[in-house]
Write a structure and sequence with these properties.
Number of domains: 2
Strand content: 25-35%
Number of helices: 2
Strand order of the largest sheet: 8-2-1-9
Largest sheet: 4 strands, mixed
Distance between the termini: 34 Å
Structural class: mainly beta
Order of helices and strands: EEEEEEEHEHE
Radius of gyration: 19 Å
Length: about 130
């Protein structure tokens, strides 16, 4: 899933731009796209709709050669289950860069509610 940048403001003329790391493009056997950040170490992984931890060996990480089997699916409650809390720092949405917008022309554009294609704006509710 590709996520475009998000611009956000404090409502006082200050704007920031947040861009997330690219998501790993590896398909984890039949279940879907890896939820890690592009270039990550360790197994390719995702959480299935049922909440199971699905994984597949990462052939680019030599440490993964010792992982038992080539892929697997581990249900919640199993001793090898990786909880979402343990994996949050590896999730692609946990990798981002935030920069302050200082270009006056860009700020004017954002104040009018427009931005480039693929981006979005998050700002305080105007009452």
């Amino acid at each position: 899933m590709k996520v475009g940048p998000v611009y956000f403001t404090d409502g006082k003329g200050n704007w920031w731009k947040r861009e997330w790391g690219k998501q790993c493009q590896h398909k984890v056997f039949i279940h879907g796209q890896c939820q890690g950040v592009k270039g990550h170490q360790g197994v390719h992984w995702l959480y299935s709709k049922a909440g199971w931890f699905d994984w597949e060996r990462n052939k680019k990480d030599l440490k993964c050669k010792d992982v038992f089997g080539a892929c697997g699916s581990i249900p919640p409650g199993h001793k090898r289950y990786m909880t979402p809390e343990k994996m949050i720092d590896k999730h692609c949405f946990s990798h981002f860069i935030t920069t302050k917008v200082i270009n006056a022309r860009k700020i004017s554009q954002l104040e009018k509610g427009t931005c480039e294609d693929g981006a979005s704006i998050s700002c305080p509710i105007k009452t």
